[in-house]
């Protein structure tokens, strides 16, 4: 017996009498345009795929919670961090960066590490990677960089000439390139990698005092990576390996977890630290600014529907709560616009109202209309501000804390350009086996580059980071070390 619960209907709720045969003029047709159920099914099917993300297209996600384990109220007034033991629900999306939606999980690529905290003061998004640095440090270079990671417009193939040409002409990329080409360039699973906010952010406490902060998610499963030959085999056998592993781990009750720590820098240190603390191609030494434990993130529930949750989840570093603010990091400043704008294009102007993105706290604003407005659109309430009808009003105590700026309006680079020290330090930290694998990976990646000019320019950067680093890659490519 058919009940109301399992009765098939059209999208407007009318019962469907026949879902196996389209309406035709006689047994052989033609099909009638009056079959509105058929038309709606076909039209909706044509629109079932929203545009994929330009970057981070291939991803996996899960629900979980964050629990505070250490008192950080001296540094921030963020309510979800206000007391030890407090739990906040969250959603995480992991992703590769350069590949398309159907690409393999086990490619050599940074991994996106995006966390949405559903706090009582609104959502807070921490949108980072599994690396503490990035390839570039100014958002104006981002479209060009991503173009090099995509496909050649004529051949539609990946283009190592573009990749290494851009990197060799952008020496600030050397630190991230070294990480990417190291063993950590291919995580064994999404559970066995660290996560980082990467950028510098600002925390402000209840007294209005601020500090600069960097986020570190330390995997409690331990770091594990894949050898390139194993990763290549898995990519062919099971391109969704990481997605499957995360789902199965949670499904079996093996909940992955990370410890969140931060580095704290006094505001005044930004003017004297030996590296620009807002340059996302650099790290802060943990000897200078030790890790401070904040809490623990646990993923314990899989999505019920991939599209509704993982694909429609939208993250932006501009999704902030009181007590957490941004820094003058030029790459971060560009992302504050670009991420929200990408979601408006890809998912729609009302993407924040979708269930996966909707804040768990009360949402009161004067934004109205737009495509796919699926709530009551504010009803008949007042729709402008300021007003005399008791509508939502600003709360001055939640204004972001001010900080001093100075200088002329101009297109200006960072004033410190040491792109080699930290990359060299990282190389020297590696064991001999790790260095050999790093060199082998770089040599293999650079061999298809057609111009020796590009190879020699890049070898020069490796040499400046560490002479042995440069010499070994030059020898592997059968090229001389450029005169320094």
From TrEMBL:
Nucleus as a keyword of this entry, yes or no, is no
Segments passing through the bilayer: none
GO MF annotations in UniProt: catalase activity; heme binding; metal ion binding
Uppermost EC category: oxidoreductase
Outline the extent of the Catalase core domain. Answer: 9-393
Its Enzyme Commission number? 1.11.1.6
UniProt binding sites for heme:
339
One GO biological process term is: response to hydrogen peroxide
Ranges where the record places region Disordered: 1-21
Query: InterPro entries from the xrefs?
Result: Catalase, Catalase_3, Catalase_AS, Catalase_clade1/3, Catalase_core, Catalase_haem_BS, Catalase_immune_responsive, Catalase_sf
Q: Which residues belong to the signal peptide in this entry?
A: none
| Cofactor or coenzyme needed | heme
The reaction(s) catalysed by this protein are: 2 H2O2 = O2 + 2 H2O
Q: Which Pfam families match?
A: Catalase, Catalase-rel
Q: Give any Gene Ontology cellular component.
A: cytoplasm
Which residues act catalytically here? 56, 129
Q: Please give the name of this protein.
A: Catalase
Source organism (scientific name): Paenibacillus rigui
């Amino acid at each position: 017996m058919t009940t109301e619960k399992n009765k098939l209907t059209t999208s407007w709720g009318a019962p469907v009498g026949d879902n196996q045969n389209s309406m035709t003029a006689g047994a052989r047709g033609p099909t009638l345009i009056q079959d509105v159920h058929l038309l709606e099914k076909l039209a909706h099917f044509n629109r079932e795929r929203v545009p994929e993300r330009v970057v981070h297209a291939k991803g996996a996600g899960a629900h979980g919670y964050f629990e505070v384990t250490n008192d950080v109220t001296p540094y921030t007034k963020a309510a979800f961090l206000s007391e030890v033991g407090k739990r906040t629900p969250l959603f995480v999306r992991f992703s590769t960066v350069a590949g398309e939606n159907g690409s393999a999980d086990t490619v050599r690529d940074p991994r996106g590490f995006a966390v949405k905290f559903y706090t009582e003061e609104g959502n807070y998004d921490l949108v980072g990677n599994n690396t503490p640095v990035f390839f570039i440090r100014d958002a104006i270079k981002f479209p060009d960089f991503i173009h090099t990671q995509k496909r050649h417009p004529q051949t539609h193939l990946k283009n190592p000439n573009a990749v290494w040409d851009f990197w060799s002409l952008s020496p600030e990329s050397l630190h991230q390139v070294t990480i990417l080409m190291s063993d950590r360039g291919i995580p064994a699973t999404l559970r066995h990698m660290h996560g980082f906010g990467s950028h510098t952010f600002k925390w402000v406490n209840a007294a209005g005092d601020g500090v600069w902060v960097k986020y570190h998610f330390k995997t409690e499963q331990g770091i594990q990576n894949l050898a390139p030959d194993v990763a290549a085999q898995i990519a062919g056998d099971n391109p969704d390996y990481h997605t499957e592993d995360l789902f199965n781990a949670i499904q079996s009750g093996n909940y992955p977890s990370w410890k969140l720590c931060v580095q704290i820098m006094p505001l005044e240190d930004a003017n004297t630290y030996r590296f620009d603390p807002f340059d996302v191609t650099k790290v802060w030494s943990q000897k200078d600014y030790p890790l401070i434990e904040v809490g623990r993130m646990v993923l314990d529930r899989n999505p019920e529907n991939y599209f509704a949750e993982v694909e429609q989840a939208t993250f932006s570093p501009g999704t902030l709560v009181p007590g957490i603010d941004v820094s003058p990091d030029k790459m971060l400043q560009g992302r504050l616009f670009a991420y929200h704008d990408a979601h408006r294009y890809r998912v729609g102007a009302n993407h924040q109202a979708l269930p996966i993105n909707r804040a768990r706290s009360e949402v009161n604003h004067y934004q109205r209309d737009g495509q796919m407005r699926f709530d009551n659109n504010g009803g008949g309430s007042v729709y402008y501000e300021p007003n005399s009808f008791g509508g939502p009003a600003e709360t001055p105590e939640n204004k972001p804390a001010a900080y001093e700026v100075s200088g002329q309006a101009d297109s200006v680079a960072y004033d410190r350009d040491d792109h080699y020290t930290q990359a060299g330090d990282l190389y020297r930290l590696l064991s001999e086996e790790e260095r050999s694998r790093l060199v082998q990976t770089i040599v293999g990646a650079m061999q298809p580059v057609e111009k020796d000019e590009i190879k020699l320019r890049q070898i020069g950067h490796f040499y400046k980071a560490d002479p042995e680093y440069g010499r070994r890659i030059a020898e592997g490519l059968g090229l001389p070390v450029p005169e320094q």
